[in-house]
Design a protein that fits this description.
Helix content of chain B: 25-40%
Number of helices of chain A: 11
Strand order of the largest sheet of chain A: 5-4-6-7-3-8-9-10-11
Largest interface: A-B, 14 and 15 residues
Distance between the termini of chain B: 61 Å
Number of domains of chain A: 1
Distance between the termini of chain A: 31 Å
CATH class of chain A: Alpha Beta
Strand order of the largest sheet of chain B: 11-10-9-12-13-8-14-15-16
Strand content of chain A: 15-25%
Radius of gyration of chain A: 18 Å
Oligomer: heterodimer
Shape of chain B: elongated
Helix content of chain A: 25-40%
CATH topology of chain A: Rossmann fold
Number of strands of chain A: 11
Order of helices and strands of chain B: HEHEEEEHEEHEHEHEHEHEHHEHEEEH
Structural class of chain B: alpha/beta
Largest sheet of chain B: 9 strands, mixed
Number of helices of chain B: 12
């Protein structure tokens, strides 16, 4: 049985994906700082039938609205229209109140994955969300120093998102190139992995390195971050670098 | 006694007669010229002097009245060629060491041989080619017209100068060729480059190279074709005639390219890439530009001058340059472009050059050489040109000659 697909809303990326992202699955977007992970994930929430929840622990709502407006995406308007919800760190800290619990939370350390998932579920149901973005999973699982507990938390997060019947992108901060790079546990657990690079010479490249049950183009291809457009992937272009073999393991 | 007889004979003036013939064939002047040389050597003629591709003089035989056959008759044959549109007009001037009375014979061997040469050159296919040529300007003219449509002169009725013309099959005239606009270059290429081909010009830094690329661009623009010039500087945009043309696009790969760009070139037609080090960025710039062009113009041939090959090779390894060139050329060919790439071979090792050559469909070399008078001159030779005929003759030219526009 073939997997249903939804558009990534990113010009060129759907070509690499063989038509789009798998529906109701959790895909990991991994990349270094400044590679455009948040832009890619936000762009995923544009397009038709894109009611969505954006969860960010580090991004303030005001900055998010302002930054994304540069690409022509008016999420403030969408929030008012009831097609979008932004869950910032401050909102998440009030999770117990929102859940009508008597407990109070004062620090992120006390936030549990279960609380967060409950929160996402409430808002997703409220706006009939089809898409969820979590920016980023590294912050969420930072407190789990034990590898086994961390694995369990990530697995719970991904399963919960899939059970919700939404298509999700979760962002991971990672050094994504070099033969000695550490492969994070979330890469093994997610249904797919999209990696974003900024090479030493400044060239930007994107690679779909994993997508369960779907034939995809796993070669790295260049992409640009374009004003008023967002991310544009060039599926017919190659990445030229003098150390290609070591950069893309 | 015999030697005395021979002495007297040698002192006697040889009889001499002259005969002129002309006809036109459909074809390219360079190809016709080369074919003529091959053909006439089979008739016993040898080259005496030539000015490629417009004039050639042949010699044959050394006897006069005592010649046993036509091949022994001392003959000088001067052939002049000129190109008018798609026709090559040829003017044959025979000087023979036989009495002129011989030519009045209806079955004389000269006439027979000439018809044979013409037949060999023209092939046998009849076509809709005009059957007469003007004896003043050699332009093919229609039978029923009293005056030449080109020069306006009254048509001669002289049999010797009005010969039947036939469609040429051996000298191919390819109307799909993309002319450079330089007479010398187009002549050796028999009309120009094959459409959608990629040709590498290997040249040291010289004025001639600049003129060739400029004329290639100008000719494209004159033909209302889209032309992309990819260079490391914005010098070409200083040429107002080129820069102001809406069909001209300039990709400049230089960190401070904007300083060199003329304001005459519209921003949407000027693409700036900050250097040649990031091949991915250059490729993306090409794709973006081609997508924009695709929306505005369609169907017509297009041209690209890729004048960054040496800089790319210097900044990147040959393996990367090769990979990049392969993809770039494929992309431009797919977009209906004919590509002229320029490389300075003196900047690179033999191995680096070899790594790139087979990517191209053809190779033209410009090189400096000392002439007998110790003057250094630029020479040119088409070294390779796949899927088309060309002349591999070495030609010399001055930049003035090279700049001369191809006429007709």
């Amino acid at each position: 049985m073939s997997t249903s697909k939804i558009s990534s809303c990113i010009e060129g990326l759907d070509v690499l994906l063989g038509g789009g992202l798998p529906q109701n699955r959790t895909i990991l977007v991994a990349g270094g700082p400044g590679s455009g992970k948040s832009i890619l994930a936000t762009q995923f929430l544009t397009g038709p039938d894109s009611n969505g929840v954006y969860v960010s622990l580090d991004y303030s709502k005001k900055s998010f609205f302002s930054d994304m407006l540069n690409f022509g995406w008016d999420f403030e308007k969408r929030e008012k229209e009831g097609t979008f919800v932004f869950l910032s760190g401050s909102t998440i800290r009030r999770i117990p109140q929102i859940k009508n619990s008597e407990d109070t939370m004062t620090s992120m350390d006390e936030l549990t994955i279960e609380d967060l998932m409950d929160m996402i579920k409430i808002f997703a149901e409220k706006i009939d969300a089809k898409k969820v973005v979590i920016d980023d999973v590294t912050s969420l699982t930072f407190s789990f120093t034990d590898e086994v507990r961390r694995r369990g938390a990530i697995l719970f997060l991904m399963e919960s998102l899939n059970d919700m019947g939404v298509s999700s992108l979760i962002i991971s901060e990672a050094n994504v190139y070099g033969t000695n790079r550490e492969i994070n546990i979330e890469e093994f657990l997610s249904d797919g992995v999209i990696r974003m690079f900024t090479l030493r010479d400044g060239t930007r490249a994107i690679q779909v390195s994993k997508m369960r049950g779907m034939p995809v183009d796993t070669k790295p291809h260049p992409y640009s971050i374009v004003d008023k457009t967002g991310i544009v992937v060039f599926p017919d272009e190659s990445v030229f670098t003098d150390t290609a073999s070591s950069v893309f393991p | 006694m015999k030697s005395l007889f021979n002495y007297y004979l040698s002192q006697c003036p040889m009889p001499k007669c002259q005969l002129t013939k002309s006809f036109a064939v459909k074809g390219d002047i360079g190809a016709t010229f080369d074919l003529l040389i091959k053909l006439l050597s089979g008739y016993g003629f040898s080259e005496a002097s030539l000015t490629w591709p417009s004039q050639i003089t042949f010699l044959r035989g050394n006897k006069g009245l005592f010649a046993k056959n036509l091949k022994e008759v001392k003959t000088e044959l001067k052939i002049s060629l000129n190109q008018t549109s798609e026709y090559v007009n040829m003017f044959f001037e025979y000087t023979l060491a036989i009495p002129s009375a011989y030519l009045t014979k209806s079955d004389n061997e000269i006439e027979k041989e000439f018809l044979k040469i013409k037949h060999d050159l023209s092939g046998t296919e009849k076509s809709d080619v005009p059957t007469k040529v003007c004896d003043v300007c050699f332009t093919p003219t229609e039978e029923d017209k009293q005056f030449c449509s080109n020069c306006g002169r009254a048509k001669s009725t002289s049999k010797s100068s009005m010969m039947e013309s036939q469609a040429i099959t051996k000298v191919h005239f390819d109307t799909n060729k993309i002319p450079f606009g330089n007479k010398i270059l187009d002549d050796v290429l028999y009309g120009g480059l094959v459409k959608n081909s990629a040709v590498l010009i290997m040249s040291p830094h010289c004025t001639e190279k600049e003129i060739i690329s400029t004329r290639f661009i100008e000719t494209g623009l004159e033909n209302n074709e889209t032309v992309i010039n990819i260079s490391c500087d914005g010098r070409m945009s200083q040429n107002d005639k080129i820069a102001k043309n809406d069909n001209y696009y300039n990709v400049v790969c230089h960190p401070h390219a904007e300083l060199e760009m003329s304001p005459n070139i519209a921003k949407e037609r000027a693409v700036i890439v900050k250097g040649v080090e990031r091949l991915t960025e250059i490729s993306v710039a090409f794709t973006t530009l081609m997508n924009n062009i695709k929306q505005s113009v369609d169907g017509k041939p297009r041209r690209v001058v890729l004048d960054i090959v040496s800089d790319v090779l210097l900044s990147n390894q040959s393996i990367n340059t090769r990979k990049w060139l392969r993809e770039t050329i494929a992309k431009f060919k797919h977009g209906n472009f004919t590509i002229v790439a320029i490389m300075n071979p003196y900047m690179h090792s033999k191995e680096e050059i070899q790594a790139l050559l087979d990517i191209f469909d053809g190779q033209i070399e410009l090189y400096e050489k000392e002439t007998s008078s110790s003057i250094t001159q630029i020479f040119m030779r088409v070294k390779r040109m796949n899927n088309t005929e060309y002349s591999n003759r070495e030609v010399s030219f001055s930049s003035e000659e090279l700049a001369a526009k191809k006429q007709g």
